[in-house]
Amino acid sequence: MRKAAVAAVLLAVISFSLCACLGTQSEVVSGYLKAGSFVSVYDVDETLDLSDSVLCLRFSDGTTGERKIEESYISGFDTSTTGEKSLTVTYGEKIVLIWDYEVVYSADPTKQIKTSARLKAENTFYDAGCSTSLELRKGDLQGAAALSFTLKYSSSDATPRIVVGADWDYRIYSYGSGEWGVVVFTRDGSVKENLSFNAVTQGAETPPDIKSIIISDGEKDLDLPDAGGESDA
Questions:
Q1: What is the distance between the alpha carbons of residues 213 and 223, in angstroms, rounded to a whole number?
Q2: CA 43, CA 115: separation in Å to the nearest integer?
Q3: pLDDT digit string (tens) for 27-84?
Q4: Which helix (DSSP H) or strand (DSSP E) does residue 208 occupy?
Q5: S-S: 233 plus which of 101, 147, 187, 227, CB 3.0-4.6 Å?
Q6: Are 139 and 218 within 8 A, CB to CB?
Q7: Under DSSP, is residue 93 helix (H, G, I), strand (E, B) or coil?
Q8: Which among 49, 31, 30, 26 has a CA at the least distance from the CA of 39?
Q9: Is 170 helix (H, G, I), strand (E, B) or coil?
Q10: C-alpha–C-alpha distance, residues 42 and 175, integer Å
Q11: How far apart are CA 112 and CA 228, in angstroms?
Q12: Beta bridge mates, 130
């Protein structure tokens, strides 16, 4: 009984001490972003680097401190499309800070990227020639009706042959000097999250350069970043 009584007393003392400490703990009253925490301009698809991101805090007892900004504090960061945007840093119940930034396409700063869809191009070489496999991926393609792109071949004699799925159709236009335009569109207006097809290069030893890519919903064109062989755009 004596041991039980002593344990109960010790538990009560510890509980009282913890409550006293919590009761006197200083609260966060204000905060701001440390200079250099974020940059003002990001490139398309650039990831958020938080290595230099710091939140400066002031407490109710007049002291100050710093907190490393974590990804969980961030909302509203999106570099899939270009334009002026804002991200929010939230810490606790009292700190809500806004940072304005802009997303540009550094390969062509005048170009506006209006969709998060991207085109992946991968080249395959074989004895009789080569082919370029293209996959439209990453992004909501709801309402998309067509995808067009321009192929530039080093040889003017090269002719593309497009292989697509059964739900899609295509047209090829020759511009001369080894340049061809290709339009792939849905026959029934259906939309798929991913569209894969091959541009087989007949009579060429090197794969084509992809000069331009546009996806359309039937009313307006949405620009995509240019894609080259074996690289993501």
A1: 7
A2: 14
A3: 999 999 999 999 999 999 899 999 999 999 999 999 999 999 999 999 999 998 899 9
A4: none
A5: 227
A6: no
A7: coil
A8: 49
A9: strand
A10: 36
A11: 19
A12: 125, 201
**Residue 149 to residue 210: CA distance in whole angstroms:** 7
> From CA 138, how far away is CA 134, in angstroms rounded?
13
Distance CA 6, CA 219 (A): 81
The length of the chain in residues reads 233
At 87-110, the pLDDT tens digits run 999 999 899 999 999 999 988 888
Amino acid at 10: L
Return the residue matching tokens 């240019």. 226
Distance CA 90, CA 77 (A): 13
- Sequence letter at residue 190: S
